[in-house]
Amino acid sequence: MSRDARLMNSATLAPPAVQAAPVPASRALVAAIGSAAAFSFDLYDLFLLLYLAPVLAPLFFPLRLPTLSLAAVYASFGVTLLMRPVGSAVFGSLADRHGRRWAMNRAVLGVGLVTGSLALLPTYARAGLIGPVLFLALRLVQGVFVGGVVASSHTIATESVAPRWRGFVSGAVGGGSGGVGTLLASTTLLVATGLFPGAAFAVWGWRFVFASGLVVALLSLFLFAWMEESPLWMDATEQERPQAPLRTVLSGVYGRRFALNLLLVAGAATQYYLTGGFLPTFLPVVVRLPRPAVAEVLLAVAAAHILASLIVGPLSEVIGRRRTFLVVGLVDLAVLPLAYLTLAGAGPGVTARVVLLAAVLGFLGAAGHAAIMVFLNERYPTALRATGTSLNWNVGFAIGGITPTFVTLLSGSPHRIPAIVVGFLLASVVVYLAGALLVPETRGRFA
Fold it and tell me: CA 5: distance to chain centroid?
């Protein structure tokens, strides 16, 4: 019987709780910081494009309508999301076969190299169609590496820390890293704006911002040099590692497990993208806040995002993963529609009411996926953990990531956006709760 067949047969049994040899606190801390840094840098590179979109639109996609030019830039963000599952398939298998640290180094460096290469691209004015074609090609490649970072950053930390810290690490890496990545990207943009003011930013400023991605990648590699390989992966024998992790995850018992997990992840991801991810559009278009005011409110949203991740992740260690999902889902079902509809009628101007409502949306949107990372880790044995976790995560977030586009297309006009958003949110919470009801409790079950 092949290794893959033995692994699939073993999946019919409940995975035993594994108590690995104690890991020194310093080693576990470095693993947790390294994983959080890797995912933060990963998201940092993605956020750069969103912040530069208004500048890049006329440079690479000079269409007759400015809104179409901007849409083309946002579409390049979408293709990155769609390529993330490909990165999971490639780097997840590599991480399961060759080690988490080995895969992380290569994926993070790949993201940095691609981001740095964007700084060297010729614009449409200088090279015609070659400029936008190269831009989109690099974004496709970047999506593969971005998906690859998830494979290692979402496994090496939870496999290295003591069991009681796994929920906290899940929130810190899977959720809190997004807030850190946003903060880093905002800081870089602020520095670039000061160095290249006015028209100079459209010439050199955006290149400086993209070039910073390579610097960040090199700094992360320096940090990773202090990391050690996952102790659970090291303890697994060569015979336990499957020859084809991707095929094993998507077939038989694990294939059905993957489908159930996807209900949770896609539901959580949709809530995230329709709250914290959609507020940068909702606040100026529906609430009619001026751009500087939007930036102020989004700082509160980012803080709420980090806070939710650091509260809900540890909560899952106390009451269990499944119960945490059910509690969050029920709260979201009641509060998200009310908060969005109230925010829509708040009127222009930054008031305490607007900030509070936006922060509540950011908090609840992040709460849904704070414990997802460790849950996925516990759904797959060590031999399949990187592939299964990253593929479930990236496919779910690719589904969630396209929902704002559908909301915008179906709304037609700003006054219809709140109702459409609430409709999509309610559907996503129902899917999320269905997943929570169908999956088993996994707390403490590392196989």
Answer: 32
